[in-house]
Amino acid sequence: MRDILPPDYFSSDYAGARERFLNGARNCGCEIASYPIGQVDPDGSPLTVDVAISTEGDASRCLLLSSGVHGVEGYFGSAVQLCFLDEWASNPDARPTHRWVMVHALNPYGMAWLRRVNEDNVDLNRNLLRDGADYHGRPEGYDALHHLLNPTRKKLSRWEPLRLKFALAAIRHGRKHMQQAISAGQYDHPQGLFFGGHGPTKSHQILTQHFDSWLGDAQRILHIDFHTGLGRPATYQLLTQHPTNETQWRWLMQTFGAEFIRICGQESVSAELRGSFDDWGPWHAGQRDYVYVGAEFGTYSPLDVITALRQENLCVHSALTSQEELRRVKARLLEVFCPASLSWRRRVLDLGAQVVDQALANL
Ligand SMILES: [Zn+2]
């Protein structure tokens, strides 16, 4: 059992998180690769996807830990990564006996500018469609919810009874069906929520180009991709959607415990998604034994999260938004995806580290 982890692994901004990540990776003797996305952070520094690769030990097995697919959610995933980099730098005996890779802030723009989406309003975890797939369409039922999710500013009232509206929509459509319609991924409204893009984003292109080299010769890969915002506060589910084979499924259950493993869309906190990592990863890995889990940690209620997303998206795309208002909605977005509460931070860091420990003990 490890000691209680200090919550200061949570960085206060992207630049600080990146610096700590690179230092930690250097202190562990990792190979480091930084891929620019052609954007800058609020201080004008170039934004990069940073990858740390340890080639020590058994090359046939690889643990892959990724953070920040959803930008602002990356503060938690980054904290888990920093915690292990710290531990492995100071205690080489604790390092994995096999290859390991950490991908820091796969959507660095969202992490730096406090958005869940990237520089083009694209949800990266809806953008990872397989080669040749059609970036068009929207889920059944989306049209009926479009104006609730993506209102035009002029029609907004300060006194809009938003909670009531979402509650009524949930009654009308059914809670599960509504979640599927809202969040499965849409490709027709570029300024809307959960937009999957009109083609592969820069981060997607980086993945396509370099993913194989990160995995090296590994034939057995466990990929843990950290997310926040779904589920009860400070609890987690390990989500998978790609049909695993029976051996992989049994291994997941034994390693992490059946109560934590869920299939997206089936009794889980997540809808079944289009263009997500857990389809793209196993597809790209081909014949390799590749297992993906989206480690989803709860923060606030679904209504709190969706209203914060809606408000931030509306403000970002409206010329009527003041800087003060923008700061306020972004602060709220950060809070719903990475609560400031010290007890939440301690708890999720502890649970995140526990998941990684379980993976290391069984890979
Ligand atoms: Zn996420």
Question: How does this model look, in words?
Answer:
The chain has 363 residues and is of the alpha/beta class. 42% of the residues lie in helices and 18% in strands. It has an eight-stranded mixed beta sheet with strand order 1-2-4-3-5-8-6-7, with helices on both faces. Helix 2 links the parallel strand 3 and strand 4. The chain is globular. The site of zinc ion has 4 residues, from loops.
Compose a concise summary of this entry.
This protein has 363 residues and is an alpha/beta fold.
- The general outline is globular
Low-confidence stretches: none
In which range does the helix fraction lie? 40-55%
Number of helices: 13
Helix-strand string: HEEEHEHHHHHHEEHEHEHHH
Please tell me how large the radius of gyration is: 20 Å
Instruction: Give a list of the ligands.
Output: zinc ion
Strand order of the largest sheet: 1-2-4-3-5-8-6-7
Helix/strand/pairing category: alpha/beta
Report the β-strand fraction as a percent range. 15-25%
Q: How far apart are the termini?
A: 19 Å
* DSSP E strands, number: 8
Indicate the mean pLDDT: 93
- Main sheet attributes: strand count, strand direction, barrel closure: 8 strands, mixed
